[in-house]
Design brief:
547 residues, mainly alpha, 70% helix
Amino acid sequence: MRKKYNTLLVVLVAVLAVALLSWFLPTTYFDGSSFVQNERTFVGIAELLSYPIYSYYNFIYILVYLLLIGGMYAVLNKVGAYKVIVEKVAKKFERKGMLFVTIVVCLLAAITAFTGYTFEALVFVPFIAAVTYAIGYDKVSTALVSVGGIVSGVIGNLFSVQIAGTLNDIVGAEFLSLWIPKVALLVVSAGLVILNVYLIHRKHTSLFNKVEKNMFVPTTTSKAKVWPLATLMILYLLTMILSTVNWSGAFGINAFETVNSFLGSTLLFNRYLLFVVFGSIIIYYVFKYSFNKRKLGKKSFKEVCGIKGIVFTCVSAFFMLVIIAQCILEDVTHVTTVFTKVYNFLGLNKIYITSLIGNTVAFGQWTYNEYIVIQLLFILLVSIIYRETIEETVTTVFDGFKNILYPTLVCMLAYAVLIITSNHPTLMYALKPLLELTDGLNNLTLSFVTFISGLCNTDFIYYNYGVFTLEYVTANITDTTLYPLTVIITQSMYGLAMLVAPTSIPLLFNLSSLDIKYGEWLKAIWKLFIELLAVCFIAFVIILLVI
């Protein structure tokens, strides 16, 4: 098989492996109160062929999100300014490659620790890879920068709803429970990733030679202005971060919910909002006239602001006078009555801000639906700013789909493992005896069971389905002070599994995109894996002794 399709083979083997388990192990699961064991439910040929199709059907929002990553960067490459940005960033870090690596790994780790981003962060991978390549790093080092940063953020996860929040809900812990060990694991994990990127890059064996061309390297350049694109990219990053941080649950900040509620209950044509809008128009043209008059001499308002300025200013002044009259003569004259009748007749009393922009979701509660909308909006704004036609934009986006199609299909196929382990839960039968080797909490057995579970679970949101449930562990631990430690063990081992699992979406996306064999990857990062495993075990033992 060609090197390019190595990751496809790896995922197919993983799918076949979990399917074969159904032929040897009975269906087992924990129903919340007791351990249930049923007869074996075989995965036949029909199911084996249909489950991959189900993965594309059931997780189509993931499919669209990943494809749009290709569409976004195809549009960026088309406008040319993107290549200039990449070159400028690379030039700034030309002899400071490790500084760039350190910044990116730390940022990814911190963002993941706060937001729970795993494959959501893949939207930033093409830019990271393009700059890393331009600086002169090999492909394995480039992949490790992205994958390692995300893994570090999962190991030391602090405030994400999907990871720490899910586990805290199961055991009844708080976000700040054992936060010092979490921060320590976050910092040490990120440090080890940075160190190993340096060592792998320094090694420069023939196995890891730098690849000059790949789908992430921009090829089109132009003299277009850079600052609009740079601003949009920064705003996109900030929006993605702000939209996912658990503001209310973790920090008690309800400002975004308040604003969202205000938008849903505020009339679009509320007189005070209209006052601000019309007043802003008047102020704009007054300042424009005053500023330009100094430069142009004695020019009339029409010559400075044009017919449009006259019309906008007059209309705005009229409505402001009406609004002022309504406010002053409230319930005194017929002004209010006339205004209200017209207001009600036009239905303006029922048009809220959300009627125009639609139902909005407060920051901290966004899902893939909102992420996809932001992707489309980003593409639209880039096209408008750089004057791309609709036909050109659509064609470019679909070209981007083709470029990213193989990594996307591989990632989506990995969800078949999740579907099989959910419909045919068998691994708990083999893992349960390990958990029962000792009474209470055992760091070693719980770590091993969690790691195996992580290898078979593509998405942490579905972590309690099919393979292993933390509820079963805590149900057999009488000392509730140990519950927060089970959270740290679970998220750490899951993060560690993401570094090597054939179902890890961040790993599969990077390996498929950068044309790296799975075996090459394991050969390159096995030392990092051992180091992270050792650090985690040392942390678990220290925490157990202290609490």
